[in-house]
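Worked example

This section walks through a single chain of length 367. The input is the sequence exactly as stored; nothing has been trimmed or padded.
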Amino acid sequence: MAVEQREARETVAATRMVKGACPHDCPDTCATVTEVRDGQAVRFAAAPEHPVTQGWLCAKVRPYLERVYQPDRLSTPLRRIGPKGNADRWEPMTWDDAIGEIAGKWQTIIARYGGAAILPYSYSGTLGLLQLGITNARLWNRMGASGLERSICGAAAETAVRATYGARWAPDYADVLESRLVIIWGHNPASTGPHFLPLLREAQRRGAHIVVIDPRRTLTARSADEHLQPRPATDGALALGLMHVLFAEGLHDEPWLEAHSIGWRDLRDRVAAYPPERVAEITGIQAETLVALARRLGTTTPAMVKFADGVQRHGNGGQTARALACQPWWGRWACAVVASHTAPATMCGGTPRRWATPASVRRRHES
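Given that input, the structure is written out below as tokens.
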């Protein structure tokens, strides 16, 4: 019995729980717990107490340890010993040799041409914020390497949102529970941000009207109350058409716009060229459907407009993102969210706030 107790204590002493966060490029940013025994991870799971993760992980991350300890996973650097294109001509080398060879070539380039002759080209993979945004940046700065826009993924939308709102701030996922109207635009959180879905479904059960705008019949669209399928790359025209109706029918709050925005009259003049009939020809969305959605957006409070990177991966993508970001600017205490690959952006009630909930904004408006 004493031997068994001692062995149990030794097992406990050799086991530790390591808390962390999912390194994937996803707005959920799930909390994880890894059980490590004798230096090896033996269990990987979601943190049960985390308000977003809530004890479950997506299908991409659940089998993480299977990939980490996969027998055919590369565990040593490889050097090509033949011409490019011959995948079989590789030989293993030590980490010290690999680092030394790379550093030596870089030093030769810097000595001959200067550090700017080296152009870092990489992206996130599963590095996480520390390795992606801090350690590698220090390396390239130290070397004097050329600077490069690190992302062609969401740069247009990020710039557009910052230009429209002044910042890229985010509400909590749980803010959707206070919304009476939710427009999911060019975004499929069922596949790309799955921990938002339980909250969206709960908002729907509480009476929120869910609208998905997406050319595809996505998983998210299948359970929405309404699904609009515009032609690809016509989202900007659809957004301008919605604003046309909002202005034409007096669903905007002019004193609010005058106090909290710049250029709204120019926007009103621009959208005058996009009546529902013209927008219907461009987008394929029937004019009466567009008008009905605009009226719902203009009369429902609080509301949330949530879109992702896909809508800006076309010509005029940045301007499309700006048009979508302008949808809540009617003094109706709506909230817009951009579900970017880094941090979402939001505008609630005209004053950018960190973690501002529609309920809190509504109370401020009423007071």
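What to look for: The two ends are 69 Å apart (CA to CA).
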